[in-house]
Amino acid sequence: MTTQTVKQIICAVHGGPESRETAIRAISLALESGGRLTFFHVMDAEFLGYATVGTLRVVYHELEEMGKFVMLILCDRARARGVAQVDYILREGDVRKQLRQLAMETGAEVMVMGRPTRSPTSNVFKIGDFDTFVANLEREANLRIVQVTPAPIKTRDLQSGLVF
Question: How many domains is the chain partitioned into structurally?
């Protein structure tokens, strides 16, 4: 599949600093192909099952609003770079299940995902699990997954903000 035949690109972002390179790669693919770019973020609300007070639900609502804000910024950045068709989808649930479901629903030809990194935060995927998931999703959804390996994050990079 060449970038000329790509009509739909999904860019799955976790939202951390590592997502920057993933978003940049997806924007470049959308510019090369002229395809629609959809940024996608899944909020895993598993922790709410342990909530005993309303405060956690308020925190979750704030996280959801922050997720929407980040998606809007990514869409603005893509438009500023020249991507004509860009939108976002924010969902709640199991990340693997939601990625698979969106790939099937949209019929996207390409999904851009960041590879898991060794970081102090938890990753949805372990390295071996990720490779298996990617291979299965490519086969099941008939799409190509572009894997982006983020460079190590430096403190200086974190302070510079999202500049594409």
Answer: 1
- Domain of 60, CATH number, reads 3.40.50.620
DSSP secondary structure letter of residue 26? H
Q: Which two tokens stand for residue 33?
A: 């192909």
78-116 per-position pLDDT tens digit: 999 999 999 999 998 888 999 999 999 999 999 999 988
Parallel, antiparallel, or unpaired: how do β-strands 36-43 and 144-148 relate?
unpaired
pLDDT in tens, 127-146: 678 889 999 999 999 999 99
SS3 at position 85: coil
Two structure tokens written together for 132:
């298996």
Residue 53 lies in a domain: yes
- For helices 54-81 and 19-33, the axis angle rounded to 10 degrees is 40
Residue 124 token pair: 């949805």
Instruction: Please check whether residue 4 lies inside any domain of the structure.
Output: no
- Asked if residue 5 belongs to a domain, the reply is no
- What CA–CA distances, in Å, run from 36 to 13, 27, 80? 16, 10, 15
Range of the domain at 113: 11-160
Question: CA 9, CA 95: separation in Å to the nearest integer?
Answer: 18
State the pTM of this model.
Answer: 0.83
